[in-house]
Structure formats: structure tokens, C-alpha cells
Design a protein that fits this description.
RNA-binding; alpha+beta; Isoleucyl-tRNA Synthetase, domain 2; 6-stranded mixed beta sheet
Length: about 1100
RNA sequence: GGACGAUUAGCUCAGUUGGCUAGAGCGCCACGUUGACAUCGUGGAGGUCACUGGUUCAAGUCCAGUAUCGUCCA
């Protein structure tokens, strides 16, 4: 490897080498270590639905940055990797693909076969996801990689559910859910999107009816015969002749109407409240109610129909007014028995048509208008969802009856008393507001992919038609069950609770073993010959009347909400609930132990829990973050992390969120291949500020001619595609070719909508914004290249104070500040500012000034060489400082750009294995394990301690910089080439003059300028251009070159500028109120500034008058 | 509908508790390539800080309202 560095940084060559090296040395591994403090980050587990996108790249970069930083700070830093089975999302994606490619539905192949296919999908994407993370340089402890359905996580899920169940926190209830009739599952709110569709807005009437006195005969009004268990069904009604008009977009729901609602203050209907109407198509009679929240006077007729079982607002209204909830749909969205003979079995949309016809025929149709309707769609199946009343399982979030804080409150308390802190802080509000509602958590999903709800239901009923007198009571069944459980040795693994409302006994199981035994039991119950006393006698040893009782035992079909398992991530991954053994590693072992004897406790859990920071995006603060905190408190008695950093979202160039369906997503690998991992990481870190989301204009680079085709919106909606592609892409599965506007050749283009054909040329995604990072890496590379080229003859050695020249002291002062600043900024998760601080230092200070200034010394041509023949020692000290600074810089950058830093560290190890400012030592074998250059707890012991920081020196240096810039400016204005020497005269105080003289050699070096004279006695030479600083005036004689008129113009402009500032400042000082009200310090500052400005103006005016004379 | 955020140079963004001449990167213009880097260097142009009011000696910054955009929750 001892070859010269190439002129350009070539990332791909470097990356694979160091990934292997790090892995071989186990630098990513974290083990319990009593000599170090732990630092734990749990990855926001990516879904195995698909490959990682830019959001993941951002998320991963920041976590890796913090992990690498903490590792260098001496923490035992664990970054726990893993993936989420993502229930609905993954099942849907597999089902969709299966249907598209083979025309099969899940019902065609069955539960086991589908689950098998999903596992295959999971295996393939998990592999891809983990590889993507590796390519990003993620320093996860890969041995500990977890998956939410693996054995370790499953145990945690079962234990948690079991504990919830035992504590009475699990219950079953009916809730209005978003029902996806296509997938036949409930869909979470966040899995629903709204889309405008063409619809109709019908207006109908219901006839008002009144009770018929008992005994009076009924005239043509029907009875509420179809009503369900309503007392109304036994009462007769007749029409009063009045009609109530209302509008609806879903006429079929009138089958399930429970009321008509008006506003309480609506005078038009005041007299009708409390009366009834009849639903013409079913004949059912329902009340007219008043509800201020549901009805709006000014909207339409002011009347609305209320269908509590099929509309979210109506549901709430139904609860407020104690209305009946009438479910009218089957799971496939056909009408159920409440439709009666006329409608039962019809699809909801067919029924809608039929009802409209019937209403019209019955004379209750008023009008219809076309209207755009916001319709909820399932994100997974893309089909409309129906609000639907169904049986679901819940976790109770509310407080206990005795006022003890419940799960939600405990998680709120943790944030309120700052055990968990949000960065930026404003996000804690999202968390607290959401938890504050204390809504019960619906944890059941009607899916096949996931953790099956570990509950069995035991039902009992009558065996024969003979007599039900002797049927067992609930307590008798429970007693029998308990006896069986005890005999089976399942006392600790099951929990039994009667669910009287559903005439069911619930049995929660903790283990698979218990499930097996219950399954066997169920089998026996099913097969038992109910007529054989002998058989039954074995089963049910007690009681002679069992022949009348039949038992059935079924396992719950639903699976748990994905968030149930991910809520446990922070402790489940560490092996909880096993508190006695370390969690298994990938190789099956339990990893190194700090205990000599056989471990008797789970050290990994003890050591790494609670974690330190969760780094995530804001859209899962509620669904995930809040639930991790509450399960952590519930299971572990402690919060899962003390900080939550919420980073920005990545948007496309049009400010839209990236998504697969919009086609604007981007595989980070495209960018990594194009710009290099470090460049991508550095750029991403620079984007990660506190307020703004990240807008990324993207383009596609033509593989033939490298022309970049920008992304464009498709003109109608949010779809994004290369601007040369005509037409819409939505719903297309054919691969679309993109013509290049420049070379006219076609290529595929990178899109999340389908996989590229690797055999064909493809236009990959590019974005100018990543050139920021690429250019920076190249700059750093070349700075290091320069240093290494100039280290010939380097010897390690302590740097004496007397060896340090102005630029050395300055760069050390600056580096000390920057290391301190970056440390502070990272501690606050201000990645954008940290990145900028490092870039500015590297580019604008280290490269632009320091490297330029030491070039003469490195060549043995410094001032010392000329004046005193000290060339060798000057060179040696320059090399030592250079190596020291570069060493520090590489350390500082390692968390941001690990690959280039490792490469440079290794190169440095070859040419300067021993280095360090004050005590040169042999450098460690990898920058990953080098120490962080700023020690927070012990600043004085830092590599670049604060004692190096020197305000006065930095001020002196600024003057040098300003002088050089001013001379360069004059060169540019007068078109004097940089190789033509010029002379410089500086008029200033003697002290300043002395300081200028000290760095005279640098004027020559940096600006090819000879400092002829400096001091108070200096006069403006004739025919010179001039400039002025705060404490000095500079003159550059330009014999023959100076254009008097132009120079006069330049100086007058300068004078005008100064006068403007002076006006502003003196205005302030003349303002009585300012002088009396503003703080003394501010007033003094203004005075001082004004004095300086006036002095400068004086100088400029002197020059102007001379020019005028000349 | 509620909460939060944003609106500053052509583009993407910084701008601390109000306080000296509002900054950066990219892009643009001019000049510059015999050894660190053209993924570069030097210099420069470019901003009524969305709008309207208010508070203040002083507002990009604080307050109120308006407009537009975004996110989350309903």
C-alpha cells in the first residue's frame, strides 16, 4: 500500500477494504464491560417490506455517527440492528405480488403456505436491508441482529401479553375500525389514505311517525318489525304527514340508521325532537335526536342520519346518545341479515343502487348531485375501506379505578419529569397530547403474518335438545378447566379469565408448550363421543350431567399489531424476559461474559438497558416511541432511553414526501455508488438541522452521455418521473424506457416502482446536493495527500513552545475550539452545525491558510532558513504540527466519514506511526478505536486542550488574513497577475507594525507581496492603490498601473459605504432614548465602532484628496 | 377541524437570550493550471428577510393577523 495517493479520492476502492477490516477486528461488537460506561442505541427497526430508502439512510447515518463518536469517547457503544416483520405491510405486499404474478389469493393457498411465502420474502429483504446498512458503514453489532418474529423477541411478546392479561389490561370489545374488505382486516388509521373520487350526494326524506294508542288499529304504517331487540318493535306507529329531508353519500347505510339528528337550537325541527321517523326501505322506526356536535344548522337541510356502526362521527354521536349500533355488513362488505330479504347478500355498492331505486319508488327521493368525495382507502390494498364494527382486542391505556396511573399516564410522567427528553423539545408535545387521550390500544389484526394472539376461547353449550336444566354454570366450567390445567402442569403457563359477556372463558397461554397441550385438549373435546358416558367420564370426572354440556376450545385466529412487538424492542432485543442468561448471538453462543463463573444473570440486559438515545423520525413518535416508553416502564420498571432525537424527513425536489407510489423514492445505493459512502453520509449530516425537512431535487444520469435528466411532476398529481418520460407511470408494471434529450439513446431509469434489469443500461439517480460531501472528501483527501507527500524525513518529537510559529499557534487554537464546538454540537444532536464547523475548519482554515503558510517551511525555505540557517528544525516542527493537526482532524471526522478517515489514518500510520503534539505516542491500529480529541470531563487532558485557544493571537491572525485579502483584491481590480510582485506599505501604530513585520514572509508567500514599511510614519506613496483595516491603512504602489480615476471611484465608493454606517451609528447615539435605555455595554460598543469607522473614513478621505491632487 | 413547523440571494439552507455592516454551499461573472486538490484557486455581483399591523431606544429575531406550503393528529 506504500504508494502515492491518487489525485482524487476513490471511495469504492477504499470502502470494501475497511468494512472487512473493521469486522475482522470486532470493532462493532459491544459486550458488557465493567471498565467502561455503556452507550446503547436501538435501531428504529426497518420493515422487511422492501429495501431501504433515503429516510433510512439519514436515520442510519445519524445513529452511526453518534455510535462511532461515543465509542471514541470511551463508551462501550452498542448499536443494535434488526428488522420488523411489519404485519399488514409485508403480508399485503406478498399477497399483491402473488395475485399479480400467479392470480392466487391467500385463500387459495391457505395460512401455512402464505406464511411460508412471507418468510421467504422476509429472508430476501432482510438480507438486502442489512447489506444496505453495511454499505452505509453502519457500525452495528451484527452478531446481535434481531427480528421481531425471532425466538428471543417472541418470548418477550408472549410474556408481555401474559402479564397484561394477568393484570387485567387486555380486553376484548367491539370497535368501529377501518375495515379493508379486500384484505378482510382492520386497518390502522395510519395505514389509511384519503383520495378524492367521483360520487353522488343524494337527498331523501324519512316520514315522521307517531305512536298509535294501544288498541287503535294500524293504518298503513307498518311496524318496526325488522328492528333488532328494540322495544320499538312492539309498538305501532303511523305517519303524521311530515317528512324530514337529509342528504347522504352512502344511502345503503340507512339499513343501519339508529336516529335522525338535528341541532338542538334549530327552530325548524325543535318540535320534532323526541319523535320518530320510519325508514321506508326497512320499515324500522328510529328516534329524532338533537346533538350539537353532529348536526350543523347551516349545512344542507340541517338533518343528518346517524349510523353508529358505519361512520366515525356517527359512532361518537351514538355513544353520546346511547344509540343502537347496527352492523349491516359482512366481512366482505356484502349486506348481512339486517338487510332483510331484499338486501341481504348484496354487495354494498349494488345495494346502494337498489336502495336509491327503492326510495325513489317509495316517493322519498328528492334530488341527487354529482360530488367529489374524500374516500378513505387502505394503503395496502388501495381499495376503499368501510367503517365497520368488529371484535378486537385492546390494551387498556387509562388509569386504574383507584386512580393509580395506567400505562399511558406512566409514559407521560416519564417525559414530564424529564426521564425522557426530546430533541428538539417541541416534539414532546406530540407525544404528550397523544398519550393524554389515553385511548385503548387496539392490538388485534385479522392477518396471518405476525404473533398470534396467545389466547384460547372455551365455549360451552347444550349437547342435546333434551333439557338444558343441567347445563354447567360458568363457574363449573372454570372449575373443570382449572382442574385440567393443574393436571397438565400448566398452572404457571396459563391464565384463565371468564368473559361473561361473550359466554366464553379466555385462556391466555405463555408458552408454545401450553398451546400444544391446549390443542390436544381441543382435539379430544372435538372427537369425544358425546353420547358415550365412558368417554366423557374420562374427560370430565365430576358430575353426572355432563352429557348435556358440550365444550369447544379454539385458538384465537388474529395476530398482534406489529407495534406490539416493536414496542418491546429496547428490552426484547437484549433478551428480556430471560434475566438469567445473555441473549443468544448469531452463532448461537451467548457471547463473552464478565463473570468468571457461570453467569447467573443476563448481563447484556443489565448492562445495556436502559439505552441512551433513540434517533427516529417524527411520524412514529406516537405509534412507536410512546409505546416503547410504556412497555419499558411496565416490563423493566425503567424508561428505554433518556433522549429521543427527532430528525427531519427527506422530501423530493418538490417538497413531497418520498414514497414508492409516487415514484420519487431513491435507493441510497445509487448515491453511494455515484458519490461514495462518506460523501453521502457527510452531506446527509449537513442536512440534519432542527427545523427544516430536507428537500432533495433529484435527476437521472444518462448512462450513455452522463447528461442529467431532472425529475418532474407528472402534471396531474404527486407522481414524479424523469421529465423526458411522457404519460403517467401509475399502475404500470411494464418497464418504461427514458429517452435522453441529449444523446437520444434510451435507458431504464432507477425507480422504486420496479427492479432494474441488470443486463440493461440504467440511468441512476443523482442529486447535486451530494456534491457537497464529495467535494469535501476530495479536499480532505488532497490535504492529506499533500501532507503525506511532505513528510519525508519526519521524526516524532515533542513540540517546544519556541518551535511554534504564528500559523502553528493559530491552527492549534482553531482546532482546539473546533473540537470543543463539535463535541458540544453532537451532544445536542445538531448535526448540520457540527458538519459545517468541521468543513469550515478543514477547508477555510486548515487548507486555505495553514497548509499554504507552511509550504515554505516544508520546503526548507522558511524565514528561519533564510535568516538563521534553521531550515531543518523549521521543517521538522512544521511536519510535527502538521501531523498532529491532521491526526486530530481525522479523529474528529471519523464518525462522519469513517472510510476516508480510516484510509488516511492507515497512511499516516505508515509515514508517521508515532505522533502527537506534546507526547508523541504510537498511534492505535484503527481510527475507529482512537480517542476523541476533546475530553468533556477532563478538558485539560484533551488532545487539543483549551489552553491552546488564544483570542489575541487569532485577532492578530485575522489582520494578516485581511491584509492578504486586500492585496489580492487590488491585484484583481487592477488585473495584476499573481506572479507579479508588489510592494506594501502599512500605516499603523508601532505595536501593530511590529506584528506585521513578524509575518512579513507570509505576505510574500501568500500574496507575493513585499512589506516595504510599516509604522506610524508611513505616508501614502504616490500612485498607489489603498485599503484600510480597523487598525491599519495599506498602500500598494502601482507605478504606471494605477488608474487614478478608477482608484478614486473605488475609494469614493468605500467612503460612501463608511458614511452610511457612520450615519446609522451616530444616529443611534444622538437618540436620547437609546443612550438612556440600551444596556451600557451596547452603547459603549456602538461608540467604539463609530470611532473606528470615523478613523477609517478619515484615512479614506485623505487618500481621496491625494488622488484628487495627483 | 386541532397541533407543530416553514416562508431570508437564482437554488438548498444557517442566522443563539432582540444589539456593530444579514451569512454559507451550489449556481452566476471575471481572472488563474510547470507538483495537494479544476471535485481546484483568487476576486466579484446578487437579499425592500412572505405580507399587514403592533411592542421596543433597537425587530430577520418578540406579539397579533393575513397568505402560501409542509408534517402529524382528528
Amino acid at each position: 500500500m506504500n504508494t502515492e495517493l491518487p489525485k482524487q479520492y476513490q471511495p469504492s476502492e477504499v470502502q470494501s477494504r475497511w468494512l472487512d477490516y473493521w469486522k475482522e477486528n470486532g470493532y462493532f461488537d459491544a459486550n458488557p464491560n465493567p471498565n467502561k460506561k455503556p452507550h446503547t442505541i436501538m435501531i428504529p427497526l426497518p420493515n422487511v417490506t422492501g429495501a431501504l430508502h433515503m429516510g433510512h439512510a439519514l436515520n442510519g447515518t445519524l445513529q452511526d455517527l453518534i455510535t462511532r463518536w461515543r465509542r471514541m469517547q470511551g463508551y462501550e457503544a452498542l448499536w443494535m440492528p434488526g428488522t420488523d416483520h411489519a404485519g399488514i405491510a409485508t403480508q399485503a405486499v406478498v399477497e399483491r405480488r402473488m395475485f399479480e404474478e400467479e392470480g392466487l389469493t391467500r385463500h387459495d393457498i391457505g395460512r401455512d403456505a402464505l406464511v411460508e411465502r412471507i418468510w421467504a420474502w422476509k429472508d430476501s429483504y432482510e438480507k438486502r436491508i442489512l447489506e444496505q446498512l453495511r454499505q452505509l458503514g453502519a457500525s452495528c453489532d451484527w452478531r446481535r441482529t434481531r427480528f421481531t418474529l425471532d425466538e428471543t423477541c417472541s418470548k418477550a411478546v408472549r410474556r408481555t401479553f401474559f402479564r397484561f392479561f394477568k393484570d387485567g389490561l387486555i380486553f376484548r370489545g367491539k370497535r368501529l375500525v377501518n375495515w379493508d374488505p379486500h384484505l378482510q382486516t382492520a386497518v390502522a388509521n395510519d395505514e389509511v389514505f384519503h383520495e378524492e373520487v367521483d360520487g353522488h350526494f343524494w337527498t331523501f326524506t324519512y316520514p315522521v311517525v307517531e305512536k298509535v294508542d294501544s288498541g287503535e288499529s294500524i293504518v298503513d304504517s307498518g311496524t318496526a318489525t325488522t328492528s333488532i331487540n328494540s322495544q320499538l318493535s312492539t309498538i305501532n306507529y303511523r305517519e303524521t304527514g311530515e317528512k324530514l329531508a337529509f342528504s347522504t353519500t352512502r344511502p345503503e347505510t340507512m339499513i343501519g340508521d339508529s336516529a335522525i339528528c338535528v341541532h338542538p337550537t334549530d327552530e325548524r325541527y325543535e318540535h320534532l325532537v323526541g319523535k320518530h321517523v320510519r325508514i321506508p326501505v326497512t320499515g324500522r322506526v328510529i328516534p329524532i335526536i338533537a346533538d350539537a356536535l353532529l348536526a350543523k344548522k347551516e349545512l344542507g337541510t340541517g338533518c343528518v342520519k346517524v349510523t353508529p356502526a358505519h361512520d366515525h362521527n356517527d359512532y361518537a354521536c351514538g355513544l353520546r346518545n346511547n344509540l343502537e349500533q347496527i352492523n349491516i355488513l359482512n366481512p366482505d362488505a356484502t349486506i348481512n341479515e339486517h338487510g332483510g330479504e331484499k338486501y341481504q347478500g348484496m354487495d354494498r355498492y349494488d345495494c346502494r343502487t337498489k336502495i336509491v331505486e327503492d326510495m325513489e319508488a317509495l316517493g322519498h327521493f328528492v334530488e341527487v348531485e354529482d360530488r367529489k368525495i374524500e374516500l378513505a382507502h387502505s394503503d395496502r390494498s388501495k381499495s376503499p375501506v368501510e367503517p365497520y364494527l368488529s371484535d378486537q382486542w385492546f390494551v387498556k391505556m387509562d388509569d386504574w379505578a383507584d386512580g393509580k396511573p395506567g400505562l399511558a399516564q406512566s409514559a407521560m410522567d416519564a417525559v414530564n419529569d424529564r426521564r425522557v427528553r426530546f430533541f428538539p423539545q417541541r416534539y414532546q408535545r406530540t407525544y404528550l397530547d397523544w398519550l393524554g387521550e389515553k385511548r385503548d390500544w387496539c392490538i388485534s389484526r385479522q392477518l396471518w403474518w405476525g404473533h398470534r394472539i396467545p389466547v384460547w376461547q372455551l365455549k360451552w353449550g347444550v349437547n342435546t335438545s333434551e333439557s338444558s336444566e343441567n347445563i354447567w354454570s360458568e363457574s363449573e366450567v372454570v372449575a373443570l378447566l382449572m382442574e385440567w390445567i393443574s393436571e397438565s402442569g400448566l398452572d404457571d403457563e396459563t391464565e384463565v379469565r371468564p368473559d361473561s359477556a361473550n359466554e366464553t372463558i379466555l385462556i391466555c397461554t405463555l408458552t408454545e408448550d401450553a398451546d400444544h397441550k391446549l390443542a390436544e385438549f381441543a382435539q379430544v373435546l372435538e372427537e369425544a363421543d358425546k353420547s358415550s358416558d365412558e368417554e366423557y367420564g374420562k374427560l370430565y370426572p365430576s358430575g353426572p350431567h355432563l352429557m348435556q354440556t358440550v365444550l369447544s376450545l379454539d385458538q384465537e385466529e388474529d395476530v398482534l399489531d406489529t407495534w406490539f412487538s416493536s414496542a418491546l424492542w429496547p428490552h426484547a432485543t437484549l433478551g428480556w424476559p430471560d434475566t438469567e442468561n445473555n441473549p443468544p448471538l448469531a452463532d448461537g453462543s451467548s457471547g463473552p461474559s464478565t463473570l468468571d463463573s457461570q453467569p447467573s444473570r443476563n448481563e447484556v440486559l443489565d448492562y445495556f438497558y436502559p439505552g441512551n438515545v433513540l434517533i427516529t423520525s417524527r411520524d412514529i413518535i406516537t405509534l412507536w416511541v410512546a409505546r416503547m416508553v410504556l412497555t419499558g416502564l411496565y416490563n423493566m420498571g425503567d424508561v428505554p432511553f433518556s433522549h429521543v432525537h427527532v430528525h427531519p424527513k427527506i422530501l423530493d425536489g418538490f417538497g413531497q414526501t418520498m414514497s414508492k407510489s409516487k415514484g420519487n423514492g431513491c435507493d441510497p445505493q445509487d448515491l453511494i455508488d455515484r458519490y461514495g459512502t462518506d460523501a453521502v453520509r457527510f452531506s446527509i449530516a449537513s442536512f440534519a438541522g432542527e427545523t427544516q425537512d430536507v428537500k432533495l431535487p433529484m435527476g437521472y444520469e444518462c448512462p450513455h452521455c452522463q447528461h442529467v435528466v431532472p425529475q418532474a411532476l407528472d402534471g396531474k398529481g404527486p407522481m414524479v418521473k424523469p421529465e423526458t418520460v411522457k404519460g403517467t407511470l401509475k399502475g404500470t408494471s411494464d418497464k418504461v424506457l427514458m429517452p435522453c434529450p441529449k444523446c437520444k439513446k434510451e435507458s431504464q431509469f432507477s425507480t422504486p416502482q420496479y427492479d432494474l434489469d441488470p443486463a440493461q443500461p440504467a440511468a441512476r439517480m443523482v442529486s447535486e446536493r451530494f456534491e457537497y460531501g464529495r467535494n469535501f472528501c476530495n479536499k480532505l483527501w488532497n490535504a492529506a495527500r499533500f501532507a503525506i507527500l511532505n513528510l519525508e524525513g519526519y521524526t516524532p518529537g515533542k513540540i517546544e513552545e519556541s518551535d511554534l510559529r504564528l500559523e502553528d499557534r493559530w491552527i492549534l487554537s482553531r482546532l482546539s475550539r473546533v473540537t470543543e464546538e463539535v463535541t458540544t454540537l453532537l451532544g445536542r444532536y445538531q448535526f448540520d452545525k457540527a458538519t459545517q464547523a468541521i468543513r469550515d475548519f478543514t477547508w477555510n482554515e486548515f487548507c486555505d491558510w495553514y497548509l499554504e503558510m507552511i509550504k515554505p517551511r516544508l520546503k526548507g525555505e522558511g524565514q528561519g532558513a533564510r535568516d538563521e540557517g534553521q531550515g531543518d528544525s523549521e521543517k521538522a516542527s512544521a511536519q510535527r504540527v502538521l501531523v498532529g493537526v491532521l491526526d486530530g482532524l481525522v479523529r474528529l471526522l471519523q464518525p462522519f466519514t469513517p472510510f476516508i478517515c480510516e484510509e488516511l489514518w492507515q497512511r499516516l500510520n505508515e509515514v508517521a506511526p508515532e505522533r502527537g503534539l506534546f507526547e508523541p505516542v504510537k498511534a492505535v491500529e484503527s481510527v475507529m478505536i482512537a480517542s476523541w480529541p476533546y475530553d468533556v470531563d477532563n478538558a485539560d487532558q484533551s488532545l487539543f486542550p483549551p489552553s491552546l485557544q488564544d483570542d489575541i493571537l487569532e485577532h492578530r491572525f485575522s489582520r494578516l488574513q485581511e491584509t492578504v485579502v486586500a492585496v489580492r483584491n487590488i491585484r484583481a481590480v487592477y488585473g495584476i497577475g499573481s506572479s507579479v510582485p508588489v510592494k506594501l506599505f502599512m500605516k499603523c501604530e508601532p505595536g501593530v507594525a511590529e506584528e506585521l513585520q513578524v509575518c512579513a514572509d507570509q505576505f510574500e508567500n501568500l500574496a507575493k507581496t513585499i512589506l516595504e514599511a510599516a509604522g506610524a510614519e508611513v505616508d501614502r506613496p504616490a500612485a498607489s492603490a489603498s485599503f484600510n483595516l480597523k487598525d491599519a491603512d495599506g498602500f500598494v504602489p502601482l507605478e504606471g498601473l494605477v488608474d487614478v480615476a478608477a482608484e478614486l471611484e473605488r475609494q469614493k465608493k468605500e467612503a460612501d459605504k463608511l458614511r452610511g454606517f457612520i450615519r446609522g451609528h451616530s444616529g443611534k447615539l444622538q437618540n436620547e432614548k437609546f443612550v438612556s435605555n440600551a444596556p451600557e455595554k451596547v452603547v459603549a460598543e456602538v461608540r467604539e465602532t463609530l470611532a473606528g469607522l470615523e478613523k477609517q473614513l478619515e484615512s479614506v478621505e485623505a487618500v481621496i484628496s491625494q488622488l484628487g491632487d495627483g
